Amino acid sequence: MQRKKQCPRCGKEFVCKHDNSCFCTKYTLSAGSLKELQKQYNDCLCEDCLKIYANTLKQTQNKS
Asked: Which of the ends of the chain has fewer CB neighbours closer than 10 A, N or C?
């Protein structure tokens, strides 16, 4: 079921599909990272913001 949502991070409107075809399934986050996102934001992020978050995590992990 598709729903129009507004990204709580940037305000951009996007479509959330709520299934395995949704853009968010392309990104892998650890359980801890997912919990942090849920603490910071009350709803799904748009693909641009999720991509930024995932890339930032990847860079941080690569430096460790």
From this structure: C
